[in-house]
Amino acid sequence: MRRGSRLEPQSKTASSGRVDWKGTFDIIVGLAVFVIAWQLVFWAGFYPSYLLPSPAIVLNRFVQMGENGQLGSGLAVTLGRLLAGFSIAVCLGMGLGLAMVSFVRFGRAMNSFSVGLQSFPSIAWVPFAILLVGLNDFGIVFVMVISSVFSMMVSTYAGIRNIPPIYIKAAKNMGATGASLFTTVMLPASLPSLVTGLRQVWSFAWHALIGAEILMATVGLGALLEFGAEFVRMDQIIASMITIFVIGLVTDRLIFSRLEERVRAKRGLVQGHV
To answer: Is residue 120 part of a domain?
Structure first.
């Protein structure tokens, strides 16, 4: 019985890496219902076609944007900015979080200060970035970083502070100091909080990036939204919105959700329910 009970959690953990066909089917059904409802509203004629195009018109615009390179170039530029801003925010946030742990007074001050900064709308940083950094990619990345870095900072600070002191004392008694103490004890123990911080940084950075591109960029998914509004191309607006939605959904489900579940499974925090 003991062997069976010990092997059961491992089989559940192993199965967590498989494709969730039930969840995938639910998503497909939900999307199908949404498209059908969209088509019915289009047929009802509540709005002219240039204000509410049909799914077929939007699909055709997708194809046109792909053929003329607008979608590909915009997607590449947006993802490049996202990678740069996300990386900077994660590294800077972790550094600030470690500094908050090392310097108690600094940590207390920043912990209170960060609450207001996290709730500060990212779009409000745009005028500040335009004047201080410039109307360029650096300004857009600045808006992303300043809007998301505090989530990583707080998650790092909270994750390390919540480590049981006995872990650190035991590691020090066994000779762990400095970098070895951080990599072998502090980092693994705070990993669940860090993963949560990564997910929040991604979310805040993605929101800030699209908002900044609408106001500051000439190339990118946000710029495609702005050009669609200027030229009254609702089909382009909806196509760009769908692209933004799909990127956000796929990234969260395929990367961050799976990473979080793996960390939780290793910690024994995954319950055996469907």
So the answer is: yes
